[in-house]
Backbone:
């Protein structure tokens, strides 16, 4: 549908495309707070972030009117107030924020936009919260193609609708060419934690079961496969997905969940080390029980990486009371997002703070906290 | 040193006089230079290091090695003794293998 | 046959382990020369499983670890230049030079890129004719054919913006130096399978003869490494010292003649320093005169950069199997994976980095009496 086939924004669906058509790329004025900023909000962000796809800018007044109307029934964001005013929920609030700078911004199975929503949603989900509202801050580098910004914003909107959250506040700043790497997105999110729910390392006990909710390593390998200098074809896509539903299913089933964490950067190895460190207990992992998709294993073999250290964006590690371990797996396997959940180990009294893997041939090794970003090696 | 992995050749072509291939490493596909392995054809397995194929893998030899693992009876001198004839599919005879007396050091 | 999983079978591993345990009447010292094998050993816990029977000594077979400090300082000087796109395997990025490493050069704006293959660096040079593309050509004999190919292709394409900083080393002279050094305790060697894939086995015949030690060409999967150890132990127990091939699926006696010819065309043998060990005669490769125009040292005039090793780092002795990392005063204190003094604490296969993990588990130390 691209307007004139030169990579310019897809303007067909926009209410009033003219102001954007003049500027196929981000210019300083888009962050100036004036007409260009308003156009960007009105014609790019509002349609993309609409809580119901297609109902773009209900609630926005006439063009140039930057304030919503009292009593407006449309999206919170579309009121364009200085702050989103939200109903106070029962229970406790969970609140988190994260910045997203992934390169490249488009990878097999997702984009920066999907990550910016799901990453924050999952941080909320990991404390047992039901995520409700997100805000988004954009740092745009002059020269960024509006088409790309549009694609990211639309991905964010779609991811938010899928995750059942609403994007209610936003901000855009433009920096000069060379001062940023195209596009940075920061999202913050709030969610509601039911009373009585208490998850965290203080609840971990020796004998607890450790499980992962799905095959590991997919996101990191998908991103590496399109990184300049390393490009390879791989039959795997990022696992980027919102985890609220399977987590809530676990809680609703009354499973004795002690702690949840999503193994993003540093992978499962980093997460297990964090929980061993925080609980002052040991963790033992049976390596052959860890679900590693064949292409991830192959890519790791080929690049010299350890699948346990590769990033994930759509699975979580759960520490579960021993007696509920099998039931936890059963519940998770009932959800398509976590259909391959598997028990991978247990919490032990021995070697506090350390994660020990039982290797394929029956020895043990320490699974260390990854030092830094994994670099492909030749030796 | 020398992380080199086996993969299966899927497609072969010529790029400005250099023989190239697409190789499948169990779900990872990568372009590989075949200049040093003129004998490798589509369907063969090859060992690849930093984008360059180094040899055609010898399936018969691989099967022999695996069969040998199956035959090992722990501690049994005869079954476990490989002798010196296993130097490989190359052109060496048992007699070429150099033998010398070993004086083991004590303990370590 | 996929050539991977088959060679990691736990049942067969148990059989090979049991055979080694049943055969060994004393604790033999066996050196795996190759860092790839060190990785397999540590990753799978083979040293732990054989602790009583075999003392596994980790050799200098990691091109990252043995690249001399001054080569790294020269690399850093080149990488910091504004006109340069500096390409390296990921391994080298965190190796410390005197005051810096490539990661920090990159952080300060240097154009440092990780590539998978030297051929990727040649492609970059073609795509960026206005930039100087430099590739840090480290490696043993296994990597030399790929590095030679890159130089050949650059010559073929008439590229004048491509060069290589060569740090190529050769394995047999290192084995010779280790076996001949006074106080050597190693009793048998696992020769690096992929080095032999390229070079064949002939070079090891005189070593077996001279030192009276078993040398077994060994692969990299868990069963391969166990089988290599098993064959060395069997020879030692029977008083034999022979050259043997436990990796026949990938190694022939002759090696790969086409690869050998390319290496011989592009490079010539030279003396060279090994980090922490010192200069070993005829143990390195440099560009042959016909390809000297691709030498980054000459192009960027960094040949004068010379540096001294940290006196606190005893990696040389570690790399020769003379001391265990645990015997180094800096180990775990001044020198950790986050603050390495020497390369063996950096590389994934570095003996010191491997030990840093194991000591923390407080398992019995498997190397060294």
Residues:
């Amino acid at each position: 549908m691209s307007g004139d086939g030169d990579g310019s924004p897809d303007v067909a669906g926009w209410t009033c495309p003219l102001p954007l058509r003049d500027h196929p790329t981000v210019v300083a004025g888009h962050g100036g707070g004036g007409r260009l900023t308003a156009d960007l909000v009105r014609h790019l962000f509002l349609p993309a972030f609409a809580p119901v796809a297609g109902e773009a800018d209900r609630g926005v007044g006439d063009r140039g009117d930057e304030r919503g109307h009292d009593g407006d029934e449309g999206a919170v964001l579309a009121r364009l107030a200085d702050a989103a005013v939200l109903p106070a929920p029962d229970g406790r609030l969970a609140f988190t924020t994260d910045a997203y700078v992934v390169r490249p911004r488009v990878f097999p199975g997702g984009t920066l936009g999907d990550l910016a929503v799901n990453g924050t949603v999952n941080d909320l989900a990991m404390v047992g919260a039901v995520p409700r509202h997100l805000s988004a801050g954009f740092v745009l580098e002059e020269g960024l193609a509006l088409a790309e910004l549009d694609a990211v914003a639309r991905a964010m909107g779609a991811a938010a609708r899928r995750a059942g959250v609403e994007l209610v506040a936003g901000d855009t700043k433009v920096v000069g060419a060379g001062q940023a790497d195209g596009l940075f997105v920061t999202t913050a999110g709030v969610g509601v934690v039911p009373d009585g729910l208490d998850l965290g390392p203080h609840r971990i006990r020796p004998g607890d079961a450790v499980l992962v909710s799905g095959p590991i390593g997919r996101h990191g390998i998908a991103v590496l496969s399109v990184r300049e200098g390393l490009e390879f074809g791989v039959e795997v896509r990022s696992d980027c997905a919102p985890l609220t539903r399977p987590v809530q299913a676990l809680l609703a089933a009354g499973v004795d969940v002690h702690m949840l964490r999503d193994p993003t950067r540093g992978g499962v190895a980093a997460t297990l080390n964090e929980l061993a460190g925080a609980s002052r207990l040991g963790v033992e992992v049976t390596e052959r029980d860890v679900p590693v998709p064949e292409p991830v294993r192959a890519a790791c073999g080929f690049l010299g990486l350890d699948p346990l250290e590769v990033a994930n964006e759509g699975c979580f590690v759960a520490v579960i009371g021993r007696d509920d371990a099998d039931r936890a797996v059963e519940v998770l396997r009932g959800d398509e997002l976590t259909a391959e959940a598997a028990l991978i180990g247990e919490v032990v009294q021995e070697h506090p703070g350390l994660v020990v893997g039982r290797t394929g041939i029956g020895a043990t090794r320490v699974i260390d906290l990854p030092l830094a970003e994994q670099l492909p090696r030749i030796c | 040193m020398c992380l080199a992995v086996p993969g299966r050749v899927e497609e072969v072509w010529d790029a400005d006089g250099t023989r190239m291939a697409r190789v499948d490493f169990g779900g990872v596909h990568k372009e590989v230079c075949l200049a040093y392995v003129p004998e490798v054809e589509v369907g063969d397995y090859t060992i690849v290091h930093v984008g360059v194929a180094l040899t055609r893998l010898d399936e018969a030899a691989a099967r022999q090695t695996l069969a040998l693992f199956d035959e090992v009876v722990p501690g049994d001198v005869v079954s476990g003794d490989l002798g010196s004839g296993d130097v490989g599919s190359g052109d060496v005879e048992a007699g070429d293998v150099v033998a010398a007396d070993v004086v083991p050091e004590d303990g370590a | 046959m996929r050539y991977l999983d088959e060679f990691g079978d736990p049942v067969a591993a148990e059989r090979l382990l049991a055979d080694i345990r049943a055969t060994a009447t004393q604790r033999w010292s066996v050196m795996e020369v190759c860092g790839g094998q060190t990785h397999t050993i540590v990753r799978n816990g083979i040293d732990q499983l054989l602790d009583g029977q075999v003392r596994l000594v980790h050799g200098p077979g990691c091109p990252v670890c043995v690249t001399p400090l001054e080569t790294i300082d020269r690399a850093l000087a080149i990488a910091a230049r504004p006109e340069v796109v500096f390409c390296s395997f990921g391994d080298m990025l965190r190796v410390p030079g005197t005051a810096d490493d490539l990661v920090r050069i990159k952080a300060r704006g240097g154009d440092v890129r990780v590539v998978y293959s030297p051929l990727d660096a040649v492609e970059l040079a073609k795509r960026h004719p206005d930039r100087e593309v430099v590739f840090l050509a480290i490696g043993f004999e296994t990597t030399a054919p790929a590095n030679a190919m890159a130089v050949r292709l650059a010559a073929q394409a008439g590229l004048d913006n491509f060069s290589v900083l060569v740090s190529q080393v050769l394995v047999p002279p290192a084995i010779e130096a280790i076996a001949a050094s006074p106080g050597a305790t190693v009793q048998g060697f696992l020769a690096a399978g992929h080095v032999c894939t390229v070079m064949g086995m002939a070079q090891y015949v005189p070593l077996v003869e001279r030192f009276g030690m078993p040398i077994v060409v060994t692969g990299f999967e868990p069963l391969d490494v166990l089988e290599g150890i098993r064959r060395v132990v069997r020879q030692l127990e029977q008083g034999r010292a022979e050259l043997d091939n436990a990796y026949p699926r990938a190694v022939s006696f002759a090696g790969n003649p086409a690869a050998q010819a390319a290496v011989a065309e592009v490079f010539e043998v030279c003396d060279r320093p090994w980090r922490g060990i010192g200069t070993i005669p005829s143990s390195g490769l440099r560009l042959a005169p016909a390809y000297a125009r691709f030498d980054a040292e000459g192009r960027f005039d960094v040949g004068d950069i010379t540096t001294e090793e940290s006196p606190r780092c005893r990696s040389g002795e570690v790399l020769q199997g003379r001391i265990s990392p645990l015997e180094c005063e800096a180990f775990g204190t001044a020198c950790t994976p986050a603050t390495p003094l020497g390369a063996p604490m950096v590389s994934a296969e570095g003996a010191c980095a491997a030990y840093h993990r194991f000591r923390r588990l407080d398992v019995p130390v498997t190397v060294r009496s």
Remarks:
- The interface with chain B takes residues 232-236, 293-295, 297-299, 301-302, 304, 377-379 of chain A (CB under 8 Å).
- Residues 1-19, 57-74 of chain A have pLDDT under 50 and may be disordered.
- The CA atoms of residues 229 and 376 of chain A lie 11 Å apart.
- The first strand of chain A starts at residue 92 and ends at 100.
